[in-house]
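From the shared-data thread, chain only:
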Amino acid sequence: SNYNTITSIAESPMNENLLYIGTDDGMIHVSDNGGESWTKILVNQLPKCPERAYVNDIKADLFDENTVYIALDNHKEGDYQPYIYKSTNKGKTWKSIQSNLAKPILIWRMVQDHKDPKLMFIGTEFGVFFTQNGGEQWTQLKGALPTISIRDLTIHRRDEDLVCGSFGRSIYIFDDIEVFRSINEEVLKSEAALLSAG
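Structure, as tokens:
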């Protein structure tokens, strides 16, 4: 289906005039003057991105005005690659931060930590993943969170909680994400560890 519909909008928290729009027909639109004019970017200009990939989410970086992230989806064409990209020049060029994410993983939503710019979470068709290094390496959250479709994510800033909205399986809350700001690779690889929350 192709309805030429806006699917995601982001406003830079660093510059209220910098806006990003993603659509369901393979386009990204960028405005740096509050919407008075727009620059169109075709998603097939992104590395190895299909021409009609659906923009599931677009997020302006919380710390850097020039940086923006985008997650796309091409499953309607039988393609289950996890398409996720980062631009550091307001969308002029992009690089994949798919890293070790492997198909079949559809990425629905992403959220950046408001304290650590390199800490990000993504909601996928198969649960939640996080990165501590801006997408160089992703780790799946397991434990009590079932492997289900997570369609929305947000961080409750006052309580430092990660809130996950699933597709038909309720809401899940990870209490206090401070641990993600401090754990290292050794802890991640260990069978068990005691962690202190902030």
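The radius of gyration is 17 Å.
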